[in-house]
Predict the 3D structure of the following.
Amino acid sequence: MTNKEVYKKTLTFSLRRLVFNVICVAVLAVLGGAGFLIMEKLTDKGLIGLGIGVAFALILIGIVSHFFSYIFKAGQIAMMTRAFTEGSLPDNVYAEGKRMVKERFLTVALYYAATNAIKGIFRQLGKGITALGEAVGGDSGQTVGNVISTGIQVLIGYLCDCCLGWVFYRKEQNAAKATCEGAVIFFKNGKTLLRNVGRIFGMGIVSLIVIGGIFGGFAYLILGNFPELFESIAKELPADAPAWLNNTANLTLIGAGIVGLIFWGILHSVFVRPFVLTGVLHNFLEAGKKNVPSEASFAELESKSDKFAKLRQKM
């Protein structure tokens, strides 16, 4: 199956994530707005009420997301992996994706334990490159190392997803061993996989400009009709706040920018990111299938990541 076919076939997970995220934004807006209005009427401290409402909403969303939304992302990766390794997908992609996730990770705790281990390993590998640059070239080497490491940190999110895909692919192995294999695949094929950084950065910047610009612009037009709201916020700002924050036009622009970033974050994560991931995951799986990591190759990473070494002990 081509990358485009896989993306279209697994789009059902993205659509469900979109609905879930829109509901979360609605909850955030309702609770934040309610907190602002209640505190504004009771104490003339609407900004504090806004903060309380938003904090409560974020806690609620975080709890619900922890136990439910992970299935959308993990299920999509599982189905992408199956498409690239078996060449086909079942009719009910969503149901099969859920089944694979529940089969591979019997509990939510096991899923997060695996993903946290993956993130920890790749983050340490990224820091290792920065340290190497420092040791070789002093300050200039540190700069080079930092630039490379920044690129790797951006790629880490995709590599974690790819490693998770490898865990689904290597279903005959326990999750710890499959995770170690995924880390080795990156370490052995780093130059090839890092070629995806340009695509990742490019798509991210374009989607930010287009999606963030469109929704930020609409938000500015709408928020501009409520100058009293921003006047109230300006009055509640600390006395030592920058003078430009007392300008309601600037506050309106900031509010519109926040709205634009929120909608960019949602739409980029549910539509653009999976599109980029299909290519990155395809390359990752192909590299791994051609040269499945052996036990001997694990030793090379133990000295570079203590998290890798700890995970290997669980194999």
